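Step 1: inspect the first sequence and its tokens.
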Amino acid sequence: LLAVWCTDKNECDISKCSLGRCVRDVDLKLKSGKFTFRSSNPGVVPAPPIVKNYLGIENLTKQQFNILQSEEPFLWISGPAGAGKTVILLAKIIQLVNS
């Protein structure tokens, strides 16, 4: 995430800056690697080893999994914030590097 601090100092006081707090909170959630919880959701499948090993993500939606398995040279991936577009992009890049 990119954030611009609008202060007279070269840092942000997290306790006063809502943008800083937001960036910190999102960063913690991303680092946890728990995007999709499996439980009893039939639309969720276990992530392939490349996603688990490199990104630490345990589960994907079926749509994410299908995109990851696709061999199409060009893919148009759209979705709302938090849908996992970046995760799939990173996994595709790792696949290309490893091939």
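Step 2: inspect the second sequence and its tokens, then contrast the two.
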Amino acid sequence: VRSGCGQTLYDTPREGLLCNVLGSVLRLHRQTLHQTLPVCRGNSREHFLWEKMASLCRPRRRNSEKRKEKSRDAARVRRSKETEIFYDLAHQLPLAHSKSAQLDKASIMRLAISYLKTRMIFSDTKAEKAEAPVDKQMNDQFLKAMEGFVLSLSDEGDILYLSENVCKYLGLTQLELIGHSVFDFTHPCDHEEIRDVLCTKHGYNRNKACSFFMRMKCTLTSRGRNVNLKSATYKVIHCQGYLKSYNSNHVNSLGCKEPPLLCLVAIGEPIPHPANIEFPLDCKTFLSRHSMDMKFTYIDERITLLLGHDPANLLGKGVYDFCHALDAERLERMHRCLYQKGQVTTGQYRLLAQRSGYAWVETQATIIYNNRTEKPQCIVCVNYVISEVEEKDSVLSSEQATQQKIPKLEKKEEEEDRKPTNSYPSFAQATESVFSKKTPDMEPSFFWDGEQALRDSPEDLTRVAPAAGDVMIPLDFPSPDVLFNSSRLPDSFEK
């Protein structure tokens, strides 16, 4: 213990030890020590020490009621001011009054930050003219015809904007998603792919086209019910859009050029499950079922009308045998993505017709799992034919080359069936141009009449018939393969 001038009040070890012991006692018996301490007036130093200790032990004066009241009043005023500020901030958001009135403070801050980021990104765009009533009606129809929702992400993965119809596909409302990170609502295995899309390490194009698949949480069940977010499942979303930069020429207050703000603007289209597709299908659509290596196990009969294939001839054959060679690599990449995501949309590719040519097709593939073993069982594809058969005179695969031989034989048979039976020329008519007619001046021996000769000399008949002991000489004719070997196609062409 030191005095006001900094001098020590005790010099002996006994006084120091006593002070330490009394200090520990004071902490344990603070309320009762004031009554039990004796008064010592012998030594001035000890008296000063005891007075100091007694002052520490005296009960403090507390105006608890007044302080509590002041604290409550201050908190009430602070909360009222804070509520007014958040109320004004909520009404500045571009939301309906019925929606903004139900937001809590955290949601108001989240939506306000997202709205400011959106305004900052689109601040360099030109002011739009006032929309006509017809344009407003068309804007409402765009979302209905799009079969998806509009999605806008920042370069850090924050959701800047979502269209209102996202609730129709995911069960989550627009206000529940805006401002959050997209990584909070997507599958963990897709995070790296999303970062690669938003990343600009390896160079950047101002309008970079992007197309990728991601699995987002969905609270809708197959029966249309809405469940809790903890019980949500994942739905595959096909995102197609552009990664754009904004404010590239903006200069801050220090005169330095700020880096451009990146933003992904895309359309997210959920891939429907085959069990949820409405039947009957369109006349330009056919179903097919495949094994896990994409070999046909079932195919709809409509393919005969669209591409000419016989469904029975396609069973057991792979899809890659009937696709265009330039599209095989992309189909293989989509096949690999199908194993990872469970669903995929191939985009437009060329599917070969039966004999020649091809047609543009787009396929939605889904893996069907076994209910008992929960293992992949098969792949069901919904194929949309979006064009007629093109390049009908071009043979593009060995399958089409083998089908080219069959029509020629069929055409010959059809032509023979169409001809009448009496249209064939007789033997006399066919040889009339080769042999001249018999005239009276010809000698009787000019033409040998076998029937008359046998009547005149029937013994000649015994000379023609073989007698016993005659040697039989076989006539070796070449096989048909040797005769027609030169007219056959080479094996490489058939393959």
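Step 3: confirm your contrast with the notes below.
The two ends are 106 Å apart (CA to CA). The chain is about 35% helix and 20% strand.
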